[in-house]
Design brief:
This protein folds into two domains: 2-44, no CATH class; 56-156, 3-Layer(aba) Sandwich (Dna Topoisomerase Vi A Subunit, Chain: A, domain 2), CATH 3.40.1360.10. Helices cover 37% and strands 17% of the residues. It has helices at residues 71-80, 99-105, 119-134, 148-153, 158-175, 182-197, and strands spanning 2-7, 10-17, 43-44, 64-68, 86-89, 110-114, 138-140. The strands form two sheets. The chain has a four-stranded parallel beta sheet with strand order 5-4-6-7. Strands 1-2-3 form a three-stranded antiparallel beta sheet, with no helix packed on it. Helix 1 (71-80) links the parallel strand 4 (64-68) and strand 5 (86-89). The longest helix has 18 residues, at 158-175. It starts with a strand and ends with a helix.
Length: 199
Amino acid sequence: MVIPGFWQKEPSYIKIRRPLPGQALEHSLGLWTPADGLPEVKFGGPRGGVACLFRLEMLGHYPILVLTEGEWDAMLLWEYCPDLCDVGTLGGATTKLDSLDLSILTRYLAVLVIHDDDQAGEQGRQYVAELHTHFPRMQSIQPPAHDLTDFWKAGGDLRAWLAGQVARVLESVLGQLVIHSSVTEGWSRLAELAANESH
């Protein structure tokens, strides 16, 4: 599986998802050799790639943005929740945001970041906690399983789970607004939709 990351309509990086030992497709690419790199590394790709907020420049504009750790989880959310929020990905647990990234995120009322439930993900959550002190609209939420893909594969209702997260945050933000307009009325309708679809 090849996953290209684009920025400004140009490829910024390319990831190649490799099957790991013991997985159903482990022999689909032929036998592993030392030239392939470490056998337990599931992502490879050509050198020179630069991490970017995967697909973020191509989004519409909902008031809530969800950033996942990886592309798989982001693509699942695009499929199941396209009318609840914007979705992008950090592209990795240790990815850091630069000033341009943060300036783009200011268009959202809230940015929810979902790292995997593992040691690398915990480092990512600590980084988001530090960002939160300077950028309060950005916050971590715990995944319902190791990651969203595992939750979905186990039969979890991904849309209902995310709807609950969106409703909670959007209702909190709307409760703090002192000015109301046709735009905020649209946000209120979205919050109601999400609340009705949550568990």
